[in-house]
Amino acid sequence: MSGTEPEAAESRLFPTRPFVGTSIAVLRDDRVLLAARANEPMRGVWTLPGGLVEAGEPLAEAALRELQEEVGLSAEVVGVLSPTEIILRDPEGRVRHHYVVHPHAALWHGGEPEAGPEALGVRWATLAELETLATTPGLAGTVREAFARAARHEEPTA
């Protein structure tokens, strides 16, 4: 490709590099907001709302944008959580998908989520309920970390 042609969008299938994503764990009392993925990979699996970060977009802003696009909510980000790598391989061992997802903890401030075009459904789930669902890799640990981060945010200052 010459320097004057726009760069073609890279395929997410069998990528040449990892894709950077973000997600958001919106907490409401003892529950977290989950969305069932409408797209591959992992269609139908429960996860946090999220998606790819756009060039020049800060991670937290991308998380809030994806929350609005996927489920129609806004929230207050209260912290950044540990990244999660999702690497899926084909039967021959080739990398089929590779995402590095930067999750955020957030607090719900009102409204009810509605599934947008990127979600088959939405639900609020407790940690116990989360353990019984088909979820993306590492989701339970990310949600536990989000609850711990939110508790530190809500502690009164001395």
Would you mind describing this structure in some detail?
The longest helix is centred in the last third of the chain and has 16 residues, at 139-154. By secondary structure, the chain is an alpha+beta fold. Strand 2 (31-37) and strand 3 form a beta hairpin. Strands 1, 2, 3, 4, 5, 6, 7 and 8 form an eight-stranded mixed sheet that branches. It has helices at residues 59-71, 127-130, 139-154, and strands at residues 19-28, 31-37, 46-47, 50-52, 75-80, 84-89, 95-108, 119-125.
Topology, pairings included?
Layout: E1 19-28, E2 31-37, E3 46-47, E4 50-52, H1 59-71, E5 75-80, E6 84-89, E7 95-108, E8 119-125, H2 127-130, H3 139-154
Parallel strand pairs: 1-7
Antiparallel strand pairs: 1-2, 1-4, 2-3, 2-8, 5-7, 6-7
Structural key phrases:
alpha+beta; disordered N terminus; 3 helices; Nucleoside Triphosphate Pyrophosphohydrolase; 158 residues
Any idea what the radius of gyration is? 16 Å
**CATH architecture call:** Alpha-Beta Complex
- The share of residues in extended strands comes to 25-35%
Instruction: Please give the CATH class.
Output: Alpha Beta
What is the rounded distance between the termini?
Answer: 59 Å
List the uncertain runs.
Answer: 1-8
Question: CATH superfamily, please?
Answer: Nucleoside Triphosphate Pyrophosphohydrolase
Mean pLDDT figure: 89
